[in-house]
Every structure is written in C-alpha cells, then in structure tokens.
Amino acid sequence: LYIVHPNYHPRKLTRTSATAFALTKVPFVRGPFLDDNITGVTITPSSATGATTLTPSSAIFNANHVGSYWKIRHDASNSAVVKITGFTSTTVVTGTVQAEPDGTSGNIGGTSAYTTWAEGAFSGLDTAATREKGFPGAVAFHEQRLYYANSLEEPQKFWASYIGAYDSFDNTLTTANYAFNFEVATEQRNEIKWLSSGNRVLNLGTTGGTFSASSGDTSAPISPTNIMVNRDTNYGCAALLPKRISSFLYYIQRDFQKLRELSFNFDIDSEISSDMTLLAEHILKDGTSIVDIAHQQSPNDRIWCVRNDGQLAVLTRNPEQEVMGWCRIIAGEDASGDGE
Q1: In DSSP terms, which residues pair with 192 in a beta bridge?
Q2: Does residue 128 register a pLDDT over 70?
Q3: Residue 297 above 70 pLDDT?
Q4: 169: confidence class by pLDDT, cuts 50, 70, 90
Q5: Contacts of 19 (CB under 8 A, 6+ apart)
Q6: Which residues pair with 314 in a beta bridge?
C-alpha cells in the first residue's frame, strides 16, 4: 500500500507476516527528476562512488534537500544518482551514490565539475513550513505501473514507474517498459487531485475537470512514446478518492456539494459527467461539505457520502437498470427520529 501527502515523503505499508506490518519511506530508484540543468552552475563530487560530498559553483542547496535525490551525468553513457544525507551549507552537502536498478554499485564516472545534473522532482522536510519542491499528492496503480501526480512544484504532472518495478523511475531509455512523465498542458492551472485506473484509461481528476490518459490504442498499454491525454469534462474535482460501480466512476465535485457520475456516451463518443444530485440538491448541500465517500457492493450498490455535520447521504445506484435514489441517515436516531 502506497500512501502520499503533498507535505511528506511517500510511504509504503508492507505486510511482513500474519501479524506484522512495516511502514517505510519509498526508496526511489533513478528518479523521478526535474529537467536537466541548463545554466552554467556546476556540481563537483568528491568521490564517484559510495559516500561523497557535492560542491556546487553557486548556492543551490538548503536544509530541505536532505533525503532528496540528484542525478549527475559524467557523459552520454555514465551518470549516477546521489541521495543527500547531510546539509553543511548552501554550497556543501554530503550524500551517498545510489545503486543502479539492477543492483550494481552506482558510479558517477569521475570527480570533475559537471554542468549536466538534475534535481529530484520531490524534496522537503516532513513539515509544511519547511517544504521545498513538495511531494506527490495522488497515487494509483495502472497497467503494471505505479503513478504519482501533483507535487507542489509541478501540480499538473504525473510520473509513471518502470513496469513491474514500482519504486524505479529509470527513464534512461524510451522503450516500452521504462519510466516516463507527462504534464497535462491546458489553458488553466489544473492541479491533479486524484488518479483512478479504468478499463482502458487512467482517469485524472483535476481542479478544472476530468481527463483520460491512454495509448490511443485499445490493444496497447501506455508507454513513453505512446501516450495521449484528453479532456473529458470541465467539472472540477475535490481531493477525495472516487469510487467505481461497474464501469462508472463517481466523484465529488470541486465545491463539495455534488456527486458526479463519469461514464462513456456512445452518442457523442466521449465521457460525460452527470449530476447525481440533480433531483435532490439538498442532500449534500445541507451539510455544506463532503469529507469522505465509500462504496457498498452488496446487497445493492450504494455510494455513501459523509457530510461534515456527521450525517450520511446514501445513493443507491444501478446504472444498467437506471435505478437511482437518495436517502439520509442521521446517526443516533431510530426510525421514529427521536433517538430512542
């Protein structure tokens, strides 16, 4: 289980035995990184392997970079990743050259002053007051990759791992199994609030609407060289994980007062987002906000919406039979409504 928060390093919850779990920071391998440096600033490592000290020609480091990853390239075929372990000053940090994805020891290739380097896409201490680039705020599995999205630095970007290696973001090649990233470029700053794996697409819920990422070919998965992202609707999303009933996706609108159903409409050959509260607008508005949603499969499909006043709004839904109905549950009351 992967857990994310924009102010904290992603965590991985692993079950190690029948009665024990381990919560650890995700050990990123080979990225992800920001774009390569294009300035004249150099970084000089004291050692090409193992423990090393990085000395830049300009003040680029700060204390928030402890725990972050930096890529240093010696030449076209030699580069390595350094994890920052200590901060001395803005021009001196210590770190460790990381192992390669195949387990071999990392080697920068030399100790010259290098202009080709890249800062890790994520960084910052575990406190909002001292965050730097920030960490991803959304995560999902899709087509044997782990996807992260929405850092403070790049809220419209998502990062896809190496196939089958969920902690590796090695993008040294562009073949189908390697990692990649993609920025959703639109006319607005659409922060990605959630990711959801669909039948043929990866659904993206943003503050400005919903999008679908796919290869464009129903028989092929997304790859570094085969990806397209299309806008489905312009109804913005709240930062609450959506739920699925069959092939239909249910999410809370950005104003926290509407539940929407995302489905494919063959008449217009596109996704549509239907307002599930159209005939019962009060059911969510009376609580002013929704704090969480859940899906119940049996005996009937229901979407449970927890309002901020503690009341529950429940949608019973069967899209195939066009069944839809709302009810409200007030905790502590019996059928007579007197709480006894």
Answers
A1: 206
A2: no
A3: yes
A4: very high
A5: none
A6: 304, 327
- How many angstroms separate the CA atoms of 58 and 44, rounded? 11
- The mean pLDDT of the chain is 91
Distance separating the N- and C-terminal Cα atoms of the chain: 41
Whether the CB-CB separation of 204 and 229 falls below 8 Å is answered with yes
Does the bond joining 299 to the residue before it have cis omega, within 30 degrees of 0?
A: yes
Strands 270-275 and 259-265: antiparallel
Across residues 70-75, what is the average pLDDT?
A: 92
How far lies 120's CA from each of 32, 83, 84, 192, in Å? 6, 9, 10, 19
Q: Which of 151, 265, 160 is nearest to 214 (CA)?
A: 160
**Which ranges constitute the DSSP H helices of the chain?**
282-285
Quote the CA–CA distance of 316 and 324 in Å, as a whole number: 6
Q: Do 187 and 175 contact (CB within 8 A), yes or no?
A: no
**Whose CA is closest to 45, among 107, 126, 130, 125?**
107
Sequence length of the chain is 340
Q: Is the pLDDT of residue 130 over 50?
A: no
- DSSP labels for 285-330? HTTS-EEEEEEE-SSS-EEEEEETTS-EEEEEEEGGGTEEEEEEE-
- Please state, in angstroms and rounded to a whole number, the distance separating the CA atoms of residues 195 and 117: 30
Cα–Cα distance measured from residue 226 to residue 231, given in angstroms and rounded to the nearest whole number: 17
Neighbours of 140 (CB within 10 A): 20
Three-state DSSP string of 184-218: CCCCCCCCEEEEEECCCCEEEEECCEEEEEECCCC
- Helices and strands, number each (H, E), in the chain: 1, 27
Q: How confident is the model at residue 129 (pLDDT cuts 50, 70, 90)?
A: very low
Place of tokens 């929407």: 260
Delineate the domains of the chain, giving CATH numbers in brackets.
43-120 (2.40.10)
Rg, Å, the chain Cα set: 23
Instruction: Return the percent helix, strand and coil in the chain, to nearest 5.
Output: 5, 45, 50
